[in-house]
Design goal:
Number of helices: 8
Distance between the termini: 29 Å
Shape: globular
Strand content: 25-35%
Structural class: alpha+beta
Order of helices and strands: EHEEEHHEEHEHEEHEEEHH
């Protein structure tokens, strides 16, 4: 259940909910099968699937694990267009006139409604880590847009939730560029990986490099030409490695061998549910510590008041 990506949010005056109250709120917004006319639906699902008997919340030592299920019907635009074009051609041939844009729009809606029940359904589970002690939420989503969708579902579930994306005093792009260009500036327990994205200030676009020596002369020359690091692969003491993005998203998370071995050797009695909870608490504790350390390297966290649209 180890997270692959992490979008971080700071909670402001988070509601005081015990486990039973939160579980009850989640249940009222639990995922349900898509109806024939539904294009997509988002609701809460059991993090452990059927193993947990429908348990929507796991809370261990102040760390909460919840999961959202995103369901959407896959109806290719090309299929809809082909069907609409055929209907337009039939009307124009039989009535001897051009079909108006308004009529085409109506036909498209009719075709979509008719085809939707037969479309394939794609489901995606998105895990959420809630650190109640540090007032932090981390969402395991591949994009910021998907993470915001889950956060909106949580706001709807709780009635109100003030949260803002984590931000730092030092801009990540500035810190990453400094670490890349000046080895002496790097914290002692920070190691560079082998992946970087360099942005130019002008119109020279973006340069992406993988499996390269980031201390090479070629990389240094690119920095001297004015490029800045917008993504940088780093690791923290071998416990956690990731690609840091300029919006403070952590992508391609990889947890250290020692942490994985600790989880493997835990006494869970081959209980799959116990194993999930063991993996989660070890992961959550590591993330809490390393996110705190990362923010310290970036000059501390910026204190922001949530905007009105981020509240409820």
């Amino acid at each position: 259940m180890w997270f692959k990506h992490l979008h971080l949010y700071r909670l402001h005056g988070a509601p005081e909910l015990d486990s039973s109250a939160l579980a009850s709120a989640l249940d009222t917004h639990a995922a349900k099968p898509l109806g024939n006319a539904d294009a997509r639906r988002l609701g809460w699902t059991a993090p452990a699937g059927r193993l947990s008997g429908g348990q929507l919340l796991h809370e261990i030592q102040g760390h909460r694990l919840i999961s959202a299920l995103r369901q959407e019907r896959l109806l290719p635009a090309s299929v809809v267009k082909e069907e609409v074009d055929e209907k337009v051609a039939d009307i124009e041939a039989s009535e001897g006139r051009k079909v108006t844009r308004k009529e085409k729009t109506a036909l498209k809606e009719q075709v979509t409604e008719a085809l939707l029940p037969r479309a394939f359904v794609r489901s995606q589970k998105v895990d959420v880590w809630w650190d109640t002690r540090r007032h932090l939420i981390g969402i395991n989503a591949s994009s910021r847009t998907r993470a915001e969708d889950i956060l909106d579902l949580l706001r709807e579930t709780l009635g109100s939730l003030k949260a803002t994306p984590i931000s730092s005093q030092t801009l990540p792009i500035r810190a990453m560029t400094t670490w890349l260009g000046d080895p002496a500036s790097r914290p002692s327990d920070l190691k560079l990986g082998d992946q970087v994205e360099l942005k130019a200030k002008g119109d020279d676009g973006v340069l992406r490099a993988r499996q390269v020596d980031l201390d090479s002369d070629e990389i240094q020359q690119l920095l001297e030409s004015g490029r800045q690091a917008s993504k940088l692969a780093i690791s923290l003491e071998g416990r956690l490695s990731f690609v840091l993005h300029d919006d403070l998203a952590l992508k391609s998370l990889r947890f250290g061998d020692a942490l994985i071995e600790e989880a493997d050797h835990a006494d869970d009695g081959d209980d799959a549910l116990a194993r999930l909870e063991t993996d989660f608490i070890l992961m959550a504790q590591a993330l809490s510590d390393d996110v705190t350390r990362l923010l310290e390297w970036l000059g501390g966290e910026t204190q922001r008041e949530p905007a009105a649209q981020q509240e409820a």
